[in-house]
Write a structure and sequence with these properties.
The chain has about 250 residues and is α+β, with helices and mostly antiparallel strands. Helices cover about 30% and strands about 35% of the residues. The strands form 3 sheets. Strands 4-5-6-9-8-7 form a 6-stranded antiparallel β-sheet. α1 packs across α3 and α2 packs across α3. The longest helix is centred in the first third of the chain and has 14 residues. It is elongated, with a radius of gyration of 22 Å. The mean pLDDT is about 85. It holds the Pfam family UTRA. This is GntR family transcriptional regulator.
């Protein structure tokens, strides 16, 4: 064990290794706290701290009166350039995707939306609130803003399939570039309600601005991803040119 590593962190990492290597399979009940105490020769408090961290991070699930079980694998989503729809990304991972529309309304552009989308103050904007699920479990809560003049009359069906696909084929608006800013956030009462999670759950928060080839702002979105159910894959491609240092 690393001298700088706490005892419960060591146990947490060892259990995580067992999960990732398949020693503990998805849905399998792991040994009890008492059994783990004997296995690692540590106190129950230390084992409990390790299990609490693995539960918070989404690798374990506790069922009242039954024990602690290995959770389903987190869904992978790609941050680098991709044309794959959410449904397609989930299908590759053997999961059933679902997009649920919570609210579709037209609101006046506030000063922050005006500045972000480059439109006049109080211009009509379509506000689209959605939840994305994988195998019935909410993983993402998203609020999108699209100027009315860009795509007037977005429908429920379009919002619950692929918004970008609808923009391209139904409104002849193609997304050429997105700029995304990511940071960590803790879910408040509203976000935890939509994500069906405990308040204070760590989430990935991503703000996205989409543009067409002329640089016109097409969409602004705010998305919250459950940290215990989601991770991200980042791919980078580098030109093979001599003399470049990376």
């Amino acid at each position: 064990m690393d001298k700088k590593q706490s005892l419960h962190s060591h146990i947490k990492n060892e259990l995580l290794t067992r999960i990732k290597r398949g020693q503990y399979q998805k849905g399998e009940k792991i040994p009890t706290e008492l059994e783990l105490c004997k296995d690692f020769d540590v106190s129950r408090t230390t084992v409990r701290a390790a299990l609490n961290q693995l539960t918070l991070e989404g690798y374990l699930e506790r069922v009242q009166g039954k024990g602690t079980f290995v959770a389903d694998k987190k869904i992978h989503q790609t941050l680098s350039q991709t044309v794959k729809r959410y449904i397609d990304q989930m299908e590759v991972q053997g999961k059933t995707a679902e997009i649920i529309l919570i609210d579709l309304s037209v609101v006046p552009a506030t000063s922050s939306i005006q500045e972000t989308l480059g439109i006049p103050l109080n211009d009509p904007v379509q506000k689209i609130e959605r939840i994305r699920k994988a195998n019935g479990i909410p993983t993402q809560y998203e609020i999108s803003y699209i100027p009315w003049k860009v795509a007037p009359g977005v429908t429920k069906k379009q919002a619950e399939t692929s918004l970008y696909r609808a923009l391209k084929y139904d409104f002849q608006v193609s997304i050429a570039k997105t700029t995304e800013h990511m940071e960590m956030a803790l879910s408040d009462e509203s976000i935890s309600y939509y994500l069906d999670s405990e308040m204070g759950l760590p989430c990935f928060y991503i703000e996205t601005v989409a543009e067409d080839r002329e640089g016109n702002k097409i969409e602004y979105s705010q998305s919250y991803f459950r940290g215990d159910k989601t991770n991200f894959v980042i791919e980078r491609f580098y030109p093979e040119e001599e003399g470049d240092d990376y």
